[in-house]
Automatic annotation (TrEMBL):
The keyword Phosphoprotein does not apply. NCBIfam families: hutH, PRK09367.1. Transmembrane segments: none annotated. It catalyses: L-histidine = trans-urocanate + NH4(+). InterPro entries: Aromatic_Lyase, Fumarase/histidase_N, HutH, L-Aspartase-like, Phe/His_NH3-lyase_AS. This is Histidine ammonia-lyase. It is found in: Cytoplasm. One of its GO terms (cellular component) is cytoplasm. Keywords: Histidine metabolism, Lyase. It comes from the Bacteria. Pathway: Amino-acid degradation; L-histidine degradation into L-glutamate; N-formimidoyl-L-glutamate from L-histidine: step 1/3. It comes from Nocardioides terrae. GO terms for biological process: L-histidine catabolic process to glutamate and formamide; L-histidine catabolic process to glutamate and formate. GO terms for molecular function: histidine ammonia-lyase activity.
């Protein structure tokens, strides 16, 4: 059970609700804050002065004064008209994350919703009811309007949802089955339920968690490649890294040193017989590239932390009781870092693919058979696995083109500059899936090469990763076989953290 209070939820809270299905409850302090701000909204009901979203229309229609008897209809009409998404369904974890983050803003007491409405929203999350949100519909300004409107529509007992078991059904039926009442929205509530950066922020928080695991996995993969390609770990020495004091670089280099500790393969060419002075960049500069991704992620997480502490709505109820219009819903801060991460992900995948390719080229693999094939010419080995990597990396480069530099004016030019932050988040999710697959192919290929270096013994940590692959059913070197299932097994072991856990069973916790 996650308690949502007047303070920010944590990334761990977001993951617990999004991925683990945790229930939520409002804290007593947040309930008191919600009730206090609601009094301010209700006091405006007879005010002769116009108040956006309370007694006016929305967007370019904000000049229209709405009579008191039409204001409830104003809120429900807003939700229905804005629930205009199209395309494929958005993933359950994303919808649950954005709902938690919207509830978190409601809990601050800065939006003016009724307590019963906030409680009903929490109950919807706790019941595991997931509104059907569509891929397209958010411009990332005025918040993620269409995605959040589909969630608000479900609260009203309208639209489509999936129940806790994932079964699609009308929202009204799901509410009835869960013993929940549909909500008739009052003044300001429709606007408060849809005006936030919650979708793009939720995807940023989820992406950051995935990238932490993938960055450690990429360090393990790079270590396996350095080892199997007869590279050196001398360049990863702490004193060399300290000459360029980026924290991510130091962490990555320390991981590489730890994973390679005690390698018999590396010891075999430290006898003075090796004439190479330097390794290729994809080996030697792994900490610099991986570390830059780490530092970019750290910056993105600092932005996410500030956004988690925000109360995004328009108008907003200030701490001293004013109702003020503002522009805090603009998604630029989140959109930028989502785009930065997509660039970093593409480059991390690119260097991984370059290391893989070195294994397959007999002129660069330092004694390994062409394409790591059993009988080159008869067998093709991992030739086409690298093609798969290359295809993914090519797509990741396209996905690295920033969404946040684009803006298409909307709402009759009232909303004349938008962030496209939702689009940046959607492409980052696809990029992270691609990175997972690229790193998995590197690990699969490096493990085969390590076996081919026998009877030389790998480091205990890299050997543990090879054993994890073999225990999962991926056979060692041999004649060509159906490769796609082995790639998918490697992908699963990367995605569920098995690869990192195998290495850490020897090294202890890696950065």
């Amino acid at each position: 059970m996650i308690t949502v209070g007047v303070g920010p939820v944590t990334p761990e809270d977001v993951l617990a609700v999004a991925r683990d299905g945790a229930a939520v409850v409002l804290s007593p302090e947040s309930e008191a804050a919600i009730e206090e701000s609601r009094k301010l909204v209700e006091a405006l009901a007879d005010d002769v002065e116009p108040h956006y979203g309370v007694s006016t229309g929305f967007g370019a229609l904000a000049t229209r004064h709405i009579a008191p008897e039409l204001r409830a209809q104003l809120q429900s009409s807003l939700v229905r008209s804005h629930a205009a998404g199209s395309g494929a369904e958005v993933e359950r974890e994303v919808v649950r994350a954005l709902m938690l983050l919207r509830l978190s803003t409601l809990a601050t007491g800065r939006t003016g919703v009724r307590l019963d409405t906030a409680r009903a929203y929490a109950a919807l999350i706790s019941a595991g009811i997931t509104p059907v949100v569509r891929e397209y519909g958010s411009l990332g300004c005025s918040g993620d309007l269409a995605p959040l409107a589909h969630c608000a529509l479900a609260l009203m007992g309208e639209g489509e949802v999936r129940d806790a078991a994932g079964t699609p059904m009308p929202a009204a039926d799901a509410l009835d089955a869960a013993g929940l009442q549909k909500v008739a929205l009052a003044e300001k509530e429709g606007l408060a339920l849809i005006n936030g950066t919650d979708g793009m922020l939720g995807m940023l928080v989820i992406a950051a968690a995935d990238l932490h695991r993938l960055l450690t996995t990429a360090d393990v993969a790079a270590a396996m490649s350095v080892e199997a390609l007869l590279g050196t770990d001398a360049v990863f020495a702490a004193d060399l890294q300290a000459l360029r004091p980026h924290p991510g670089q130091a962490a990555s280099a320390a991981n590489l040193k730890a994973v390679l500790d005690g390698s018999g393969i590396m010891a075999s060419h430290r006898d003075g017989s090796c004439t190479r002075v330097q390794d290729a960049y994809s080996l030697r500069c792994a900490p610099q590239v991986h570390g830059a991704v780490r530092d970019t992620l750290a910056h993105a997480e600092s932005v996410a932390g500030r956004e988690l502490a925000a109360a995004v709505d328009n108008p907003v109820i200030t701490l001293d009781g004013r109702v003020e219009s503002n522009g805090n819903f603009h998604g630029a801060p989140v959109g930028y870092v989502l785009d930065f991460l997509a660039i970093a992900v593409a480059d991390l995948a690119s260097i991984s693919e370059r290391r893989t390719d070195r294994f397959l080229d007999v002129s660069r693999s330092n004694g390994l058979p062409p394409f790591l094939a059993d009988d080159p010419g008869v067998d093709s080995g991992h030739m086409i696995a690298q093609y798969t990597q290359a295809a993914i990396v090519s797509e990741l480069k396209r996905l690295a083109a920033p969404a946040s530099v684009d803006s298409i004016p909307s709402s009759a030019m009232q909303e004349d500059h938008v962030s496209m932050g939702w689009s940046a988040a959607r492409k980052l999710r696809r990029a992270i899936d691609g990175l997972t697959r690229v790193v998995a192919v590197e690990i699969l290929t490096a493990a085969r090469a390590i076996d081919l270096r026998g009877p030389l013994q790998p480091a205990a940590a890299t050997g543990a990763v090879v054993h994890a692959l073999r225990d999962a059913g991926v056979a060692g070197p041999g004649t060509d076989r159906y490769l796609a299932p082995e790639i998918e097994t490697a992908v699963r072991l990367v995605a569920d953290g098995t690869v990192v856990r195998a290495a850490e069973s020897v090294t202890g916790p890696l950065s």
